[in-house]
User: Fold this.
Amino acid sequence: MTVWSTVSEEHVLMIHIRFIKSNETFFLFNVYAPCDNRAKEELWGSLSVRLQQLRGQNVCVCGDFNAVRVKEERRSVRGGVVSLDAPMFNLFIEDNLLIDFPLCGCRYTWFKGDGLSMSRLDRFLLSEDWCLRWPNCLQVSLLRGVSDHCPL
Amino acid sequence: MKLFSWNVRGLGGMEKRREVRLLVVEKRPWIVCLQETKMMVCDIAVCSSLWGSSSSEFSFRPSVGASGGVVDGVVNC
Assistant:
């Protein structure tokens, strides 16, 4: 396995990986989304431009998206408030035909110190071609240790 | 193929680095993607403390001010 190229943008690091033996390649996006909704919308926009250029490729977008998809993915003191960021995030996933597959281990990936607030902020999103090439992918969360996020 | 993604909330301290190292040793991922490293620079010394000598390559995007920062390590392959 070798790194073919790297692209670094605000909030994103993209690497293009090639398997030396088979010559197969894939693209891996490491995302750390901002909390601010407007900045997040800009990020979904710029990421979408990149992803549209990579249609038909093996693509994985992973990281801390600082957004949830449905209200069940967030628990807070205020109760199940529907997040403003969820529709934008869902649109980003749907527009780019990304596959959001289930998480094993625990329901949330981020835990606030108060023990009351928790969210599913971290995930792996895969392109259809990735899933066809490497089917039966499994997404598992581990114990979070010294961070407030679980490793996936 | 095993990939890892983790928001570590700072990689400056030795405790965090040790935990990442432990993850790499125990779970043997191929690639590790870390977020919120809060590091302005990430040199070979830092990366070898995370990935060990098996590391083939790494990519890094520095944090702006006190927040942000992502790093990818291609390890164990």
Remarks:
- Chain B has a mean pLDDT of 84.
- Chain B touches chain A through 31 residues (CB under 8 Å).
